[in-house]
Design brief:
Blueprint (H helix, E strand, L loop, with lengths): L5 H13 L8 H8 L1 E2 L8 E2 L9 H7 L6 E6 L5 H14 L5 E5 L2 H18 L1 H4 L16 E4 L2 E7 L13 E5 L12 H7 L8 E6 L8 H6 L5 E6 L6 E2 L6 E2 L9 E3 L6 E2 L1 H9 L2 E4 L6 E6 L15 H15 L1 H10 L14 H5 L13 E2 L5 E9 L2 E9 L5 E10 L5 H11 L3 E3 L4 E2 L3 E5 L4 H9 L5 E7 L7 E3 L10 E5 H12 L9 E2 L8 H7 L3 E7 L2 E7 L7 H20 L3 H13 L45
Parallel strand pairs: 3-8, 3-15, 4-6, 4-7, 7-8, 9-15, 16-20, 17-22, 19-26, 22-23, 23-25
Antiparallel strand pairs: 1-2, 5-6, 9-10, 9-14, 11-12, 12-13, 17-18, 18-19, 20-21, 24-25, 27-28
Length: 644
């Protein structure tokens, strides 16, 4: 009998192997045997192991469980969620080859996944190297977003490209970071992705993300349809199983390094080492009925990774990061809530009590005198809104950690196409504002909205950049507070895009603060801050609407209400963000310098040139006259000058 050549035997064996039933092995078991992690993707390179996250095992078993239609991972960041998804992809390529569809929010994020996670995984895992050819080889039937392997193909697309879903059939569908996805012209991207697996009885569907805003979180909506599994950890003192919550973390004020976890049952304080032992001994338990969707929720308290340098343990690091987020601002607290607590962020209450805000007005400057800046004001910004028959302008003082003080609210009546109206604005922006500790201060940055009389605004801004900037509001959900266009437009002006919804979230949150300090908003009694101002500031409300079947939070203005004051405060936030971005002022040093000046002995009576005279009566339409010019160290820079 003729001998079959060795090459043919190998090819025949490889072909027959494709028809073998999948091995009876779990995804995580395969990964522990074959996967290797390099230092570019993990802090613990080497062989993949679930010992650094035992909670990773069961979700990976759920991927291939025949009773599970969809697996939902609502996890905090840095808990191994991405590696679980990578394991599923690698397992499918090696053990049960067939089509895989990976969906990310955008085309760019899909490319990033391919370059930074998928390709390194292939290179680091010997078991997979020969199954996907490198792009530079002639046999390589792959691109950044599409890679062929024996028995199937893995395709990555961006949810923002509906056409990407067409002509793809894949029994394995993975949608990652779904809370960053936007519904397109053809509907919900998750639904479009799952339709690609409709014809496969044994399809695998996985959804993964950190949450975003309560009522508008896509991953939270899918988790609510699941059996809601949570990681229950036994207390090392009393043995009671519990889901670790941030409310259990305690520390002496000013000493985050002494943080501990209080047991929910016996109330014993547990060290970070005991917390780690609890997590390692934990188990998944469902908290709702299973109806085909298995959901896993996990927060950052369950991490077993070591602390970064500078921290005594991981609990110390957690508390320090919480304190930093709380002091930094609304956006930082939202990010911490989403990415560490794995909870959707609930914005402030829907409606602010106007009367309560107005009652907070403080006395600084006197009813009949020019404004006098409070001692903690370090810089000034201004915002301008263009209306059909007037300009409106608000000047705001800023201190440490974004605490701010309203200085004055002005109206300049007149047609915005006429030069004299803008000349009056020039007078306001050139005003010297007397400071409580002496000297004067000028406006450092001014933001003007281009929504009305756009040509006129651009022409005004062009010759006054960068001290004056042009801004345009963006109502896109989740838009960044400030985005700077990389190039100047045809007017020679660089445009600044402002996420109005994000900034309004921040303002309404700050309005609810009760104590002076970080992000607190102050107003003076008078200087244009009348009843109409506060009614406009608090006019808008937030509501939840449903778009293509999914809830979405949006701001709206009730009929008959005006909101110019709120718009101006949004623009001032943008002006302040732009000033910090471009100038990077050392506010701590400014504050220390001013405190030193304020502590110096002062004469019983201020020098004559510091005494402010009440301005002569003038109609509201006339711009304020500048305060008496006082010698100062530096003009136009925003810091107090003229020390004596």
């Amino acid at each position: 009998m003729k001998t079959i050549p060795a090459s043919l035997r190998i090819a025949l064996a490889s072909t027959l192997k494709l028809f073998e039933p999948p091995a009876d092995v779990k995804v995580w078991q395969w990964a522990e045997q074959y996967r290797r992690l390099n230092k570019d993707v993990t802090a613990v390179p080497g062989r993949y192991s679930t010992s650094t996250g035992p909670y990773q095992r069961e979700p990976q078993e759920s991927f291939t469980d025949p009773a599970v239609q969809t697996t939902v991972l609502l996890w905090a960041s840095r808990l191994g969620k991405t590696e679980c998804l990578n394991n599923l992809e690698a397992f499918t390529i090696d053990v049960n080859p067939r089509g895989i569809l990976v969906v990310y929010p955008t085309l760019e994020s899909a490319k990033k996944w391919s370059k930074e996670f998928f390709v390194p995984m292939i290179k680091a895992t010997p078991r997979l190297r020969g199954k996907i050819k490198e792009a530079r080889t002639k046999e390589a039937n792959n691109t950044i977003l599409g890679k062929q392997f024996p028995g199937g193909k893995i395709s990555a697309i961006g949810a923002n490209s509906p056409s990407g879903f067409r002509q793809i059939q894949a029994p394995v569908v993975i949608c990652d970071e779904i809370d960053a996805m936007e519904n397109g012209a053809e509907g919900d991207p998750v639904a479009l992705a799952f339709r690609r697996a409709d014809n496969y009885r044994d399809s695998v569907q996985v959804l993964s993300s950190t949450p975003t805003v309560k009522g508008a979180s896509r991953i939270e909506s899918h988790f609510e349809k699941s059996d809601k599994r949570k990681w229950f950890c036994p207390c090392p003192k009393c043995g009671a199983h519990q889901v670790l919550a941030w409310s259990q973390v305690e520390w002496p004020e000013g000493n985050p390094e002494l943080a501990a976890v209080k047991c929910a049952k016996c109330f014993e304080l547990l060290t970070d080492a005991e917390r780690r032992a609890m997590v390692s001994a934990g188990e998944w338990r469902s908290t709702s009925e299973f109806k085909g969707v298995r959901g896993y929720w996990l927060n950052g308290l369950n991490t077993l990774m070591p602390a970064k340098k500078g921290f005594s343990n991981r609990l110390h690091q957690m508390v320090a990061e919480y304190i930093d987020a709380k002091e930094t601002g609304e956006a930082a607290m939202m990010a911490w809530t989403n990415t560490f607590l794995a909870e959707s962020y609930e914005p402030p209450s829907e409606k602010i009590d106007t009367a309560a805000i107005k009652e907070r007005a403080e006395s600084y400057g006197g009813e009949d005198a020019r404004p006098v800046l409070p001692r903690y004001v370090l810089q000034l910004t201004a915002a301008v809104d263009v209306q059909g028959d007037r300009l409106e302008c608000e000047v705001v003082g800023w201190g440490l950690k974004d605490e701010c003080w309203g200085v004055e609210f002005r109206r300049i009546p007149g047609d915005p196409t006429r030069d004299e109206v803008w000349a009056q604005l020039d007078d306001i922006l050139a005003t010297d504002y007397a400071h409580e500790i002496g000297g004067v201060m000028r406006i450092s940055r001014t933001a003007i909205d281009i929504g009305y009389r756009t040509d006129r605004v651009f022409n005004y801004v062009k010759t006054r950049q960068p001290r004056v900037i042009a801004i345009k509001g963006s109502a896109v959900i989740g838009a960044a507070p400030l985005q700077i266009q990389p190039k100047q437009n045809k007017y020679g002006v660089r445009l600044y895009m402002v996420g109005t919804g994000t900034q309004k979230d921040a303002i309404y949150s700050r309005l609810q603060l009760k104590e002076h300090g970080p992000r607190y908003m102050h107003w003076p009694a008078g200087f244009g801050y009348d009843n109409a101002y506060f009614e406009q500031l608090t006019a808008e409300q937030r509501r939840t609407i449903f778009h293509n079947g999914f809830p979405r939070s949006e701001w709206f203005l009730p009929n008959g209400k005006r909101n110019e004051a709120l718009d101006l405060r949004v623009y001032n936030l943008a002006a302040w963000d732009a000033h910090k971005y471009h100038t990077r002022p050392n506010l701590e040093k400014l504050s220390a310098d001013m405190a030193e000046k304020n502590s110096a002995p002062k004469p019983a009576e201020p020098p004559k040139e510091y005494q402010l005279k009440a301005p002569e009566p003038q109609p509201e339409i006339q711009a304020h006259k500048p305060a008496p010019v006082i010698p100062r160290v530096r003009r136009g820079g925003g810091f107090v000058g003229g020390w004596k």
